[in-house]
Task: structure prediction
Amino acid sequence: MIGKSSQFFISFLIVVLISVFFGATSAFAATPAVQIDSGDTTWMLVATAIVIFMHVPGLALFYGGLVSDRNVVSTMMHSFVSLLVVTIVWMLWGYSLAFGTDIGGFIGGLDYLGFNGVGPEAAFGTYTIPHYMFAIFQGAFAAITVAIISGGIAGRISFPAWILFSAVWVTVIYAPMAHWVWGGGWLAQLGELDFAGGTVVHILSGVSALTAAIVIGPRFEHLKKSHSPHNIVLFLIGAATLWFGWFGFNAGSALAANGLTALVFANTQIAAAAGGLGWLFVEWSIRRRPTLVGTATGAIAGLVGITPAAGFVTVPAALIIGLIAAPVSYFGIHFVKSRFKYDDTLDAFGVHGIAGIWGALATGLFATTAVNEAGKNGLFYGNPELLLHQAIGVGTALVLGCAGTFLILKGIGLFMPLRVSREEEEMGLDISFHEEPAYSPSNAEPKSMTYSIKKEAPMDALLKTDPPRPNR
Result:
């Protein structure tokens, strides 16, 4: 395994060198058609940094708090390394495939290979922000999309396989989908609307996480014991960071600092609050007790739901979208997952996939040109055709994510193991692979293959009488 991983890394370095030496020869050749706006650029600098902060530490803490105390470092490492890998892949070829000159509505050309042609001038001669800024902002989206997938397979995927999967998935799944929707591809030509990534980010990552969970298989003790969050405080810090980061994610997608940006900001906040309350009331009525984990998860579902619609709908519509997104996700997690018994460890599909589907379809219902002339009217404003286009976008993301992820994992499995051994899984990947326990107990011997963390956490002891928590 080590030899094959080394060969991959050497090949990767060769591609980097080729791109560096033969790539960016005309990075500053384009003549800007519009002037750079300092206010827009300042906002986009902040928004991009916020999205990266949303990824690390936000998503890393969110996922890290939900897993067992034996897989905290491993889970956070998956989020962190995806940021590293995807950033480099995006710079070398991913951005060009997504936003290069359209080739038949299917893929971008090689105009921006190695960031060739990406410079300080206005992006595409039309935006009022530097091309560099636009490219890095989009790269932050690509990176967190890959990281979301790790939630479905936490605690059992092998680390070398995850690194290779991250590089391949963003190339053959994310980049084409981003081109189809945002890069002038066939879905954009059809008229599908996706303001900040309902189909490109959330549905695609959600269904990919579900597919990966099925291909790799469940945890060995998935159905034998409950899997409660090991650290709710860590989880809440992550959830709050994600909420904060979503303002850069959604409002930054306006690519300017203007009235539309303010509307998107408001819609994002309202939908998150509605989602949190929606989950709270549903959980309270069904399980007779509201939980912090559930309420925060509902807020995230509301944020996912508003993502594709944020710049196309009114504030009251955002309230409705967020309010419905939470119970839709709740029933997806507690009933669909229980019925089919798949092991989506941290409910990546239940939250991102299901709420993303609702949000994309809701855009086809509530969109109105009264708030954004660049959009379209939806069904409730006399245009049923948009709902059809949104459904096509949803179906495309589901098929691409499912089929593409299946083929990628099967291909990787021909060269290296996809998952760790049973012994490593039961010991926990923090020790068995990283030799780096999250909490470093005094009796730990990281290099001993007999080391394990078995003692019950004080918080778990206090919560023994609580109703069952969401199955993680």
